[in-house]
Automatic annotation (TrEMBL):
It comes from Rhizopogon vesiculosus. Signal peptide: none annotated. Mg(2+) binds at residue 342. One of its GO terms (biological process) is adenylate cyclase-modulating G protein-coupled receptor signaling pathway. Keywords: GTP-binding, Magnesium, Metal-binding, Nucleotide-binding, Transducer. Residues 74-95 are annotated as: Disordered. Pfam families: G-alpha. This is G-alpha-domain-containing protein. The keyword Secreted does not apply.
Amino acid sequence: MTFQGLKPHHGSSLICLTRVLGDRPIVHKAGSYRKNPSVLSIIIVLPRSLGPYRRRMALGVIFQHDTTDPLAVITAPSPNESPEEKAAREEREAEARGISDLIDEELRAERAVRKKEEGMVKILLLGQGESGKSTTLKNFRMRFARDKWIEERASWRAVILLNLVRSANTILHALSQEMDDEQFGLDDAFTFDDYYRRYRLRLSPLLQGVESNLKRLLGAQPEEIEPQKQTHPITLSPRTSPEFFVRSRTWRNFLQTTRGPEFSGCSLEQDLPDIIDSTEAIANCKDDIKTLWRDDIVQAMLAKRRIRLEDSASFFLDAIDRLSVRDYEPTDEDVLRARLRTLDIQEHELRVDDDADAPKWKIYDVGGSRTQRHAWLPYFDKVNAVIFLAPISCFDERLIEDSRVNRLEDSLILWRAICSSKLLSRTILILFLNKIDILEEKIRDGIMVNRFLPSYGHRPNETGEVVKCKSFLFLVPQHV
Ligand SMILES: Nc1nc2c(ncn2[C@@H]2O[C@H](COP(=O)(O)OP(=O)(O)OP(=O)(O)O)[C@@H](O)[C@H]2O)c(=O)[nH]1
Ligand SMILES: [Mg+2]
C-alpha cells in the first residue's frame, strides 16, 4: 500500500491507522503504519476543504497496489487475471500514478504561493456596488505600478467608449419614455416637437448598434440582476438599462490582445477595426449627442424623471470631441473614470516602497453588489487590512439590485456588519468616505439632504456639514 499524493502535514488530508485493543484504540500516523503489521483498520479523513474531485483522486491514489504491503491482499490482482484484465489494471495504476504526480505538483505550487505571500501586506477592498473599490485599486496601480498601468491604459478605450454610448442611450431611452407619457396624455409629461423626435429617430438605432458592437468586442455580458422598477419617485432611480459586466478572464484576454506598444499608434486600426468603426460611428453623431446633452429641456426631463446616469457620464459626454477621434488615447483620468463592474475577485500586487526589501502589497478587489458579497468571506482571514468604500454622495440614491433600499442605508448596514465581524476582529479597518465631488455637485444643484435623511434635521445644507454628519453616522454606530 502506498500513500503517495496525500500530504497530511498540509492539512489537505490525514490518514490514521487504528488497532482496537480491548476498548482503547491505538492511533498511528500514516508513516508508522509499515512498522505495525498488527494494524487492523485504516481510517482516512479527507476534510471537506479537499473538494470532491481531489478527494476522489486521493482515494484512488491511496488504494494503489503494493506487493510489499501486508494489506496488499485487499487490492492485489486476482491470481486468475487475464491478459486483458492485467492491461486494464496496469492502465488504472498508471493513471493513478499520474494523478498522484499531479497532486504533488499542485501541492508544490501551493507551497510556493504561500511562501511568496508570507511577507506581503494584504488588503481587501470592500463596499457596495459602484462605491469606488476598483477606482481605488486603479489609483494605487496608477501611482505604484506605473509601468503596467501605462501598458494597459490603451486597452481601456473600448470600455470608455462603451460608457459614453451607454450614457447617450440612457438619455435617448428616457426621452422615448417621456414621449410615450406625452402620447398617453400624462399631466406632467413634457411636450416635445419634431425637433426632438428627429434626434431620437436618427440616434437610437445607430447608438444601439455601437453599444452592441463594443460589448461584443469586450466579451461583455448583461448584468444578471435586472434593475428593479422605480418605486420611490423622489429618489434617484436605479438605471433602467441593465448594467454590463466583463469576467476578469475575458477582460484579461482583451488586455493581452491590446497591450503593448503595437497597440498605440498606427497598428491600432489593423488590430482593432471594431474600435475604429465604433469611434467613427460616434464621431458621426457626436454633434447630435452634444446638442441633446446640453439641451435645457432634456436636462429638465432627466431631473424630473430622476434618471441616474453613471457617475462618470457627464465627464465622458463633455469630452465627446476628444474621445471620438481615430487616434484617441485614454488619459489617466479617463481610465480612472471608466466604469467596469467587477464580477470575480481581482488580485494585484504592487510595491509602494522603493526599498526592494520592503514588503509587497497584494490588493484584492471584489464585486460589491448583493449577489457578489458571499464571495468576500474567504478573504476575511487572509488579509491584514480592509479598506471600506462609503460614497458620501449616495444619500438620495437606491440600489440597482433592490430599488427599495437607500444606498446610504445599505452602506451603513454593511459597514456595521464588517465592524462586528469576528473574522475581522484582528484586521485593520480603514473607512474611505469618497465621492465628495459628487456630493458638492448635488448640494450646488440644491438637493436637500434632510429630504432623504430626516435625522439631518435643520443643519445647513452645506458640503462640510454633510461630511461631518456622515462621518458621525459611520463612526458612532449607536447613532445610526
Ligand atoms: N466623481 C467621482 N466618481 C467616482 C469616485 N470614486 C469612484 N467614482 C466612479 O464611480 C463609478 C463606480 O466605481 P467603481 O470603482 O467601478 O465601483 P466598484 O465599487 O468597484 O463597483 P463594483 O465593481 O460594482 O462593486 C466609476 O465610474 C468611478 O469612476 C469619486 O470619488 N468621485
Ligand atoms: Mg469594481
